[in-house]
Amino acid sequence: MNAERPNGRGTGDEVADLARRAGQLAGWAARTGFALGRKLPGVETAERGVRQVERQLLAELRRRLDEVDDPYHAALTAASAMNRPAVPGKVEASVTLVPARDNHVEPLRAAMAELLNHSIGFGRDRAREYFYAIILRQLTPDEARILSALSDGSPFPAIDVVERTGIGGTGRVALRNASTVGKAAGVSLPDQVPGYVTRLIGLGLVDLDEEVPSLETQYEILLTDETVRDAEKHVKRAKYVRRTIHISRLGAQFWQACDPSFA
Question: What domains sit in the chain, N to C, each tagged with a CATH number?
Fold first, then answer.
């Protein structure tokens, strides 16, 4: 059970503090140039220590996000919506949940009550932190790399492979949102880049825009991509719809809050 600390700082502040510590440690390691100085006496040992501490911080952060910021999990704990302890000297409205049967709470209804109860005491900053934490928990490591590559605002080419119809129109989509951003980001699964980009667009972190002529060379390179070439085999006559992707306003705000290199 996550108890409130005597100084009044709750679990949300602890999660934010862990995120800051992990980010500051990663940023410090990058700035001190461990990779360039491994031949110096003792540096390799120090690097292992830094990485170990960083992993511990990130593991603890993941545990806190999984167990605290997940309303479904919180609804199943003893401190969930029906048993929330009162804060001395503070009067708040709360959502009262009626047990379904046999004095047991339905988990989905309890989770919604937990969210509604959270909303009562959340200020602007805490609500934003919670929102970003929920987004962060949905990202894969490759998607985080892509967002990092887009974080400076640079556009990247994107292509849809669609089936050309007999009257010059377009039919079904064989591939959506193929992009060179995956190679630029150094993702582990290049063939999944279209799915990653689609998910990031769905989360509102990335915007899809019109074709940018100055990226012509990158479009040509993208047409030779194995994923694009494979999609061509699934249509009789391929048509390529060119677009660009870039970080969205929400994505930029989210990255600014989560950027591990910022100290």
Answer: 139-257 (3.30.110.190)
Residue % of the chain over a pLDDT of 90: 40
Tell me the C-alpha distance between 201 and 196, whole Å. Answer: 9
Q: What are the pLDDT digits (tens) for 142-185?
A: 999 999 999 999 999 999 999 887 676 667 899 999 999 999 99
Q: 239, 169 in Cβ contact below 8 A?
A: no
CA-based nearest residue to 96, from 122, 114, 108: 114
CA distance 193 to 156: 13
CB atoms within 10 A of CB 225: 21
User: Which own/partner contact pairs does 100-103 have at CB distance under 8 Å and 24+ positions apart?
Assistant: none
**Residue 160 — φ and ψ, nearest 5°?**
-105, 135
Instruction: Output Rg (C-alpha) for the chain, integer angstroms.
Output: 24
Question: For the ranges 101-105, 183-187, 255-259, which has the lowest average pLDDT?
Answer: 101-105
Q: Could you give the CA distance from residue 101 to residue 98 in angstroms, rounded to a whole number? A: 9
Provide the whole-model pTM: 0.65
